[in-house]
Amino acid sequence: MFKLLLKRAVPIPRIEEFNSFLFIGPHPDDIEIAAAPTVAKLTAAGKRVDFLIATDGCMGSSDERLYGRRLAEIRKEEALASSRLLGANSVTFLDFTDGGRYPVEALSEAIAREIVRIKPEVVFGPDPDVISETHADHIKTGVALKYAMNMCPYPALMETIGVKESFAPSALAFFYTDRPNAYVSVGKFFSARRRAALCHRSQFDEKTIDELGVYFKLRAVRFGLRRLTRMCDGFRVYAPIHLHCFPEASEW
Known about the structure:
Layout (H helix, E strand, L loop, with lengths): L1 H8 L10 E6 L4 H15 L3 E8 L12 H19 L3 E7 L7 H15 L3 E5 L9 H14 L5 H5 L11 E5 L6 E4 L6 H6 L8 H21 L5 E7 L14
Parallel strand pairs: 1-2, 1-4, 2-3, 4-5
Antiparallel strand pairs: 5-7, 6-7
Helix pairs in contact: 4-5
């Protein structure tokens, strides 16, 4: 009863009620793989979506001969093409080196700067608390986003990193999560993931994209059943009040 009353008093934000969104990807393809249908739905509704990409993606390709600066430049062009396809307003590249060999504090400061500059109502990023996740860039990006959400609303904290503004988003949403508590119906937009993934030729051939598609379709159908609809993307969503000294929100 206590948790139910808390949930009613400070509910989980409804993603689609907002008008501006920042999606943060560890690599140049992660936003599309995790959430392309949701992005496509939001932009089709006339809402502003911006992309922020943490690392340069220089370490991984389906072509083992392709790596380093050449790969990073290719992946940047792929991300730009994909963002145009999905209707994103802008893409910002932080260019941290792929592979997780950077301090999470440096990434959190960079993310906080961009949140204050872009001023999104909702910020999306990878869930850093999934037990099975081992990729340092995914974990660090999620943790850095958590830190940034506790920095960007406070002028005094932002001044310590040379920023004279502050901004408080209205919601934090995690993708790649094993504990979604909010869903976006994406049946009409489900194909956007495949179309966006096809822009990332350095990462996927069509066979791999089709295999990924099977997984994400099963996941979307599973989430759709929870909401009595065809297919859904699932996210872990918190309001600002949930983000500090509110452990019950972790159970919702």
